[in-house]
Amino acid sequence: MNLQELRKKIDSIHAEMLVLLGKRLQIAKQIAVEKKKKGLPILDFAREEAVKETVRLLAKEQGLSPTIIEEIFTMLMDYSRLEMELHSLESAKTEAM
């Protein structure tokens, strides 16, 4: 395979990753709704720590840097939390009307 073909494969993987990230974000918004119903805070420190530990182990199994993968997932969780908070605020605003 030449360089251009390899880059097309990488581009295709990027597109797949973005679809999965979009799905993850939609589920996070559903979680925000469930947490609101139960009166739970958006931040669940224990859950985030468990996710970090899991991805570190999975990263090792895949021959990836656990530290880098943990950083990536920390950013994903930060982004999800921000979107969950915004979703909650938007829901509250709609309910107030």
Overview of the structural elements:
- The protein has one domain (3-96): Chorismate mutase (Chorismate Mutase Domain, subunit A).
- The model has no long low-confidence stretch (mean pLDDT 94).
- Helices cover 87% and strands 0% of the residues.
- The protein has 97 residues and is mostly helical.
Blueprint (SSEs and pairs):
Elements: H1 3-38, H2 45-61, H3 66-96
Helix pairs in contact: 1-3, 2-3
Question: What would a concise description of this structure say?
Answer:
With 97 residues, this protein is mainly α. Helices cover 87% and strands 0% of the residues.
- SSE pattern, N- to C-terminal: HHH
The number of distinct structural domains comes to 1
Task: Please state the overall shape, judged from the principal axes of the Cα atoms.
Answer: flat
* Overall number of strands: 0
Radius of gyration: 17 Å
Looking at the structure, the CATH topology is: Chorismate Mutase Domain, subunit A
Beta-strand fraction estimate: under 5%
CATH architecture: Up-down Bundle
CATH class: Mainly Alpha
Low-confidence stretches: none
Number of helices, where a helix is a run of at least 4 consecutive DSSP H or I residues: 3
Query: What would you give as the CATH superfamily?
Result: Chorismate mutase
Name the average pLDDT.
94
The separation of the N and C termini measures 59 Å
**Structural class from helices and strands?**
mainly alpha
Largest sheet: none
* Helix content class: over 70%
